[in-house]
Known about the structure:
four-stranded antiparallel beta sheet; 4 strands
Amino acid sequence: MKSAHIYNRANVIVDEDVVDIGWAADGSACGLAVWGEFRAFLGVSKALEVRKPVMDAEERGIPAGEWPAGFERYLEKKID
């Protein structure tokens, strides 16, 4: 079992209803999102660990270009 410390309750209030988990298409990694922004990726069978801690609700998460392979389906489609 792995864990990712991505926020400190002394600095920012994060309620459970704003935290989500997403999985890579092949199940090799999970992503932890807060307020709709990925903040961490953890590998299941690989040594993948990417984190960007939450400092406040307005701060952006990990940019999509830095996401591991398999998370593309979580990108929002742009409507023309």
